[in-house]
Structures are given as C-alpha cells and as structure tokens.
Design a protein that fits this description.
This protein is mainly alpha-helical. It is built from three helices and no strands. Helices cover about 90% and strands about 0% of the residues.
Length: about 170
C-alpha cells in the first residue's frame, strides 16, 4: 500500500487558503491605505495652517496635529507588521504547494517507469489514469502557488508604495 500523508489537504482546502490569504492581504491594504490618507491629510493640514492667533494656540494646535501624526505613524507600523505576517504565511503556503507539486512530479515519474514495465494492457490503462490524475494535481498545485505568489507580490508592491507615501508625509 502506498504511503499517503495524513495531513494532505484537499483541493478545496488549498483553494480556500489561497483565497483567504488574498482576502487578508486586500483587507490589510485597505486599512493601510486609510492610514496613509490620514497621514497625508495631517501633513497637508499642518502645512496649510497660518497659526496667526496667539502663540499658545499655535503651539497647542501644532502639538495636537503632531500627536495625530504620531498615532497614524504607530497605526501604520502596526498594520504593516500585520501585513508582513500575512505575506510570510502566504509565502510558506506557496513553498508547501511547490513541495507538494515536486513530490507529485516524482510520483508521476515512478508511475511512468512502472507503466513502461507493466505487461498487462488493462493494468497499464489504470496506470495511465493514475498519471493523468497526477498531472492534474501538479497543474492544480502549480496554478494555486502561482495565484498565491502573484497576489503576494502585488500586495508587496502596493505596500512599498504606501511606505513611500508615508515616508514622504513624515519627512515634510
């Protein structure tokens, strides 16, 4: 009897996990976008003020807006850490899918070798079905790994843009 990994996920579980990672990255990106917009608005507001009232009021207004900037900076850093955690989980899942695809490719080679040595046509036709199933699995795993990688890389590019915008707002 073949050794089957008891922890082998179903195709549905794999698809669900890839979709969950995509949703998590999208949700984190939306949260970060709001924080970036807040950061930019805080900077623009502070730069637009004339502060021609009293010295005390000018100081209090500046401090309050700078306090808001500090809060937004902390939120951005927290949200960035959470997004990077999702990126890490996604990358681990991609590696797992690639490993499973490699193992299935190895199995496909073994099935092909056996198919070449089998004398019975009916047994050989069963092995052909096994090969077709393995090929479908390899394609599925590779597609899911690629979909996951594409989503992660897009999320990372967007996050780099967010980081650039926050840095620009902080340095003003």
């Amino acid at each position: 009897m073949a050794r089957r990994r008891s922890d082998a996920p179903t195709r549905g579980e794999i698809t669900e996990k890839v979709e969950k990672h995509e949703d998590d990255m999208e949700e984190k990106a939306e949260d970060i976008e709001e924080t970036v917009e807040d950061t930019e608005l805080e900077r623009e507001t502070l730069e637009s003020l004339e502060l021609d009232g009293t010295a005390e009021a000018a100081e209090e207004v500046e401090q309050a807006i700078e306090g808001a900037q500090d809060v937004s900076a902390q939120e951005f850093d927290t949200e960035s850490g959470e997004l990077e955690e999702v990126h890490g989980e996604t990358e681990e899942h991609e590696e797992d899918l690639q490993e499973r695809s490699g193992t299935t490719s190895s199995d496909l080679g073994k099935i092909s070798d056996a198919s070449g040595k089998i004398h019975s046509d009916s047994a050989n036709s069963e092995l052909i079905e096994a090969k077709e199933s393995a090929v479908r699995d390899i394609e599925f795993l590779d597609d899911q790994a690629k979909q996951s990688q594409d989503a992660r890389e897009q999320s990372q590019r967007l996050h780099e843009e967010h980081q650039r915008r926050v840095n620009a707002a902080r340095s003003s």
